[in-house]
What we know:
Blueprint lengths: L1 H20 L9 E9 L2 E8 H27 L2 H10 L5 H30 L9 H21 L16 H19 L3
Antiparallel strand pairs: 1-2
Amino acid sequence: xxxxxxxxLIPSLSYFxxxxxxxxxxxKRGLLYEISLNLFSLKIVLKIYETQLQYAIAASFRVFLxxxxxxxxxxxxxxxxxxxxxxxxxxISFSYGYAFSIALNSVxxxxxxxxxxxxxxxxxxVSPFYxxxxxxxxxGIRYSELASISLISRGFSEKRTIFNEEKINKNEFITFLIxxxxxxxxxxxxx
Length: 191
């Protein structure tokens, strides 16, 4: 719980700072404070407007709640179990479900490959980033080819892909629906 709380502070604070310093002109109404800072020969004047402050607090709180809810559910729920449940119930086609599964599983492998390529580039004193893009792209293509060969060799069909029935009890399903509705409402509400 504390891990998801701390992780969700990062996007909310960055969003607050972004709105606070780079606000639109229609938010600059009702001057509250005018702060001037003298740094050596540089004079910085910061004007804080009432509507800007209210909008920044409300929007950053909304981002905090959304990210906190997302991180908490990510740490609690097994995404693969939910996808298997939806594939069994024919909500998601099995090909999309397994493509998503392969994408999730390949993230850690691609991150390891990026680290390896960066290490080799530093040893060879190659600095531009784009030169490391091609080896990672080739690795991604090879990884997807191996994953597709693996699925074909196992008899990739709707009947043979899921051997055990995934069961989600009513409490988990209701919790998942409530969280989805809350996220949808938070995305649709305007500040």
